[in-house]
Amino acid sequence: MKLFGLNLFGSEEETVEVINPVRYDATLDTGAADKDLAKRLENAASLVNDEEQPVSGDLGIVIKAREDRDRLVAVLYEEARYGGTVHITIQGTDLDALPPNPTFDHSQPVPVTVTVVPGPVFALGSVRFDGDAAGRDPADYDLIPGGAAGSRLILKASEQLLRDVKAEGRPLARLTERQVTADHRTRTVDVVMGAISGPEADFGAVTVKGSRTVEADFIRRYSRLDKGGRYSPEQLQKASERLRELGVFSSITIREAEALAPNGTLPLTIEVSEGKHRYFGFGAEYSSLDGAGVQGYWGHRNLFGEAESLRIEGKVSGIGATTDVTTFDYSAGIVFTKPGFPVPEATFESRLEAKSETPDDIYEAQTVIGSAGFSYELNETDTLKAGGEIAYIRADDAFGENDYLTFAVPVSFERDARDNKLDPTEGYWATLGAKPSYEFFHGSVFSSFEGSLSGYLGLGAEDNIVLAGRLSAGTLIGADELENIPVTRRFFAGGGGSVRGYSFREISPYNEADEALGGRSYVVASFEVRTKLTDNIGIVPFIDVGTVSTEIVPDFSDIRAGAGIGIRYATPFGPLRLDVAVPLQKYDGGSDYGIYAGIGQSF
């Protein structure tokens, strides 16, 4: 069995029955290719990579060789080596000179020789845009005379050119020409691209196919394509992503009609395939400081036919940090979500949660929270949230045993301009929130304000290095005495999502008895250099810095920092993460290091 490409148990080799198996012995000569090009050629040569696996019949070797030649030539073209050649012989005979049904000597593995002559690197020569593409600047598509001329770059430019023409509201736009001419004398490549834009059009009638239990009218409405408006490829992409995020469909395809309707609009068809609506699962996390955590959940993604979801979840954490089960952290909750209510841009969510937490013996708290609220998408990147929350807290902390009953009105704004939510390489993510509150038992009024900003910058053509930074801060205003604010609402720092190297919530102001008080304000900053070693494996050196203060503005009198290095392993649902960090200014009796494991980037 394999998981994420790793063999967990069983034989690494799989038995595959091959009819009339023929074995061969392949060699690859990459000539004067540099190290990087040679590696790419080796990876593309299936004759070499699959050498241990026999092919079916003598013709199987020929077919594999022809496919390899096409792949190797494609690699050379991607590297702008248009004068390169690939020569393959099988048992001493040139591939193109073999008869239609060759017969080889099987007394030993059939020898196959692949010889690649890379040739010189070509530069881009002249670039011309014709037709309705005329007048556009080729430099906007990275087509610069004298610059890079790889086939992938040229193909990408043509695809972007077509998208840009279509983005002008012209759904019938098409490329009429994509001509690439290599001049071997000057070692340059001349490019000509042409396009026909076609008429401008609005989105027209929307038809839904494939829905069974999810109402077609809801799909049409939630896509927001039924509102009409000028045709836009970006809006089609957004509609597809929006429907996919509902979690009720295994596949989504939005098809454009090949011709405009009589009224001049473009008809659309949304084709969906529904997945399983009921689901269950479990997860795990680990920190050497705070112990292990396990969680389980059950859910339904389509309760009433409009993708309403119900999720019941439970979690236990702090396992292993102590052997006393009464000091573990427990939580259980139920969440109901109704998307597209009362308008397509809005989502209603209600939640009921109970939890008991004892973070590193800093405090004990039992909490029951009920909340309900709406989120509203202002546009593709901006979301506004507002709601109400009531919470009962029984706490035992530095101020003794206290009960709290609070009513709060949380309001927040989020802008998500990341290119990828699971593993961003560019863009930024900003949040800003306020939570006005009233505590009934102590009669105190207070409000918390928090904000964060994360930014990402990819370096190199393939974003093999990503600089990632995050800055977050918060303040609590109101309530004359700190003890009149529930301990769960005061600020702490430390742990895997904050300053690594310290225990969860270890960073705090302390009283003379060395008891953690929690603070009225905090600032936390993190910086990472996410470096890819291979397509799947990366390393991440990082540093986190934070401070928590009893004043409404941090006084920075006690700044704590942690530094370390992490490993990332890419999977389809986000990178697996393992971080090791040490505190640069540890507390007396505090942690010496921390190990953190989870799914997804740290921020």
From TrEMBL:
Tagged with keyword Transmembrane helix: no
Primary location class: membrane
Keyword Transmembrane: yes
POTRA domain mapped to chain residues: 201-275
Superkingdom of origin organism: Bacteria
Matching PROSITE patterns: POTRA
Keywords, ordered alphabetically: Membrane, Transmembrane, Transmembrane beta strand
Protein location: Membrane
Coiled coil: none
Any Pfam family matching the protein: POTRA
The name this protein goes by in its record: Outer membrane protein assembly factor
